[in-house]
């Protein structure tokens, strides 16, 4: 059992296996989570919250979640602003 758990939890790139990521759900909405390898976190797209993975352990406590900016906010902050005066 211990050997199988280690294989299920560890992955060189992300800290958890894709199989485990498929099983986990958001603690608030119970919706599936998406794995983000860039930030090493699990993302709940339904509410825009990112849950970090620390030392191969997904931190799915709501208080550990980070609220993500909306796509519209990201797009507007990336575009140059012009003055019309």
Automatic annotation (TrEMBL):
- Membrane-spanning segments: none
Superkingdom to which the source organism belongs: Eukaryota
Q: Which residues form a coiled coil?
A: none
By its UniProt entry, which SUPFAM superfamilies does this protein fall under? Trm112p-like (SSF158997)
Q: State the family named in the UniProt similarity comment for this chain.
A: Belongs to the PREY family.
Q: Which protein, by its recorded name, is this? A: Protein preY, mitochondrial
